[in-house]
Write a structure and sequence with these properties.
This protein has a 7-stranded antiparallel β-sheet, with no helix packed on it. The protein contains 12 helices and 7 strands. It is elongated, with a radius of gyration of 27 Å.
């Protein structure tokens, strides 16, 4: 039995390496032809472009890992069936669930490898590619940072601090702007609970203004609503978001725990659970894809010629459902954990049922 396990495992690993290499090549070629003109226009050396594209490999592996696990299992079992090896094994009294054990455990192991990569390698590579693209190619030097749910931005005339639940909207919570004089003493400070940029003007609500009066005294004024002419606009706030890809799994967890509003907290937990369960999506897809190979062959007399496109269609349907649930979770209609894991439990349960039925 150990010889059988090693044989199936060797075939599965071989095909997943071929698939990953193929997807990486296709992705890099497409990305190369889309972006190489940007590097050439900026006069950047080819070595920088090569570095940029190679640093994208961890991202590609994370994105294509689940479908590679699925297709590697489908191809391995399909070839066993095509060469009548599967029939011989089952005739020898070996049940199907025992035959697919090596592939399932290999898929689980590869998923954990991808999780490890997501924790230690992907954040560094994503940060490096974003730096190359934003600073070297687009020429946008970040003047701010994003930490613990707040943005901190330094301009020529002052310093801004705020939270921005939706980056697509010009609505800012717990907003503050401060400036200093030539002696590095605080000269002006305004803080408000809410700030809105509308019609080329800043509107602040429920805040206070402090102005330096003399050398050490400050005049304080409380307001419910006031318009200000700050020197910067929201479009100037180029703060490279610590996108979920630039954060490790541990950092995503800590970010989610430190969010200040319910909306931000929901989106943070969606990013955390979504990253983990997206990587683990390959295992339930594999459990469902394996019995589908035999069902397709038994019904239409075809194995890989129909099983591979069927498996790809299955993956896209699951991705679509999973993505829809993620959007609902960000909107607050579904809990983040339920949105991230429900597709796995449904697809995995159906797959296990079909595998067990194939042995009856």
């Amino acid at each position: 039995m150990k010889h059988l396990d090693r044989y199936i495992l060797r075939q599965f690993v071989k095909y997943i390496i071929i698939l990953m290499a193929g997807f990486i090549t296709i992705y890099i070629l497409i990305d190369f032809f889309e972006k190489i003109d940007n590097f050439l226009e900026k006069g950047k050396p080819m070595s920088l472009a090569i570095k940029y594209f190679l640093l994208n490999i961890p991202f590609i592996l994370e994105q294509m890992g689940p479908v590679c696990i699925l297709l590697a299992g489908v191809i391995t079992l399909g070839l066993l069936n095509h060469s009548n090896e599967l029939i011989a094994l089952k005739a020898g009294g070996i049940p199907l669930r025992r035959i697919v054990y090596p592939m399932v455990f290999a898929g689980l192991g590869i998923s954990f490898i991808l999780l490890t990569m997501s924790q230690f390698i992907l954040p560094m590579s994503a940060a490096a590619t974003n730096r190359i693209w934003n600073e070297e190619i687009k020429g946008r030097v970040p003047l701010g940072i994003y930490r613990n749910g707040r943005y901190y931005y330094r301009s020529k005339d002052g310093f801004y601090s705020f939270s921005r639940p939706d980056p697509r909207k010009n609505v800012f919570h717990k907003f503050s702007f401060s400036s200093w004089n030539k002696d590095y003493h605080l000269d002006f400070l305004v803080a408000s609970g809410l700030a809105v940029w509308k019609q080329d003007s800043w509107s602040l609500f429920n805040g206070q203004v402090q102005k330096l009066s003399g050398e050490e005294n400050y005049l304080t004024e409380v307001f419910r609503y006031r318009q200000f002419d700050f020197p910067d606009k929201p479009v100037d706030f180029f703060v490279p978001l610590y996108r979920s890809l630039e954060l490790s799994l541990a950092d995503l967890f800590l970010e989610a725990r430190h969010k200040q509003t319910k909306a931000e907290e929901a989106r943070a937990w969606v990013d955390f659970y979504g990253r983990i369960f997206y990587i683990l999506l390959g295992l339930p897809l594999l459990l469902l894809g394996l019995p589908l190979v035999l069902i397709v062959y038994r019904k239409w007399g075809k194995d890989l010629s129909l099983a591979v496109p069927t498996s790809c269609g299955l993956a896209f349907v699951c991705w679509g459902l999973w993505g829809t649930l993620q959007s609902l979770a960000k909107a607050g209609y579904v809990s983040p954990l339920t949105a991230a894991s429900s597709v796995h439990f449904v697809v995995g349960s159906i797959g296990i049922y079909l595998l067990l039925r194939e042995d009856t």
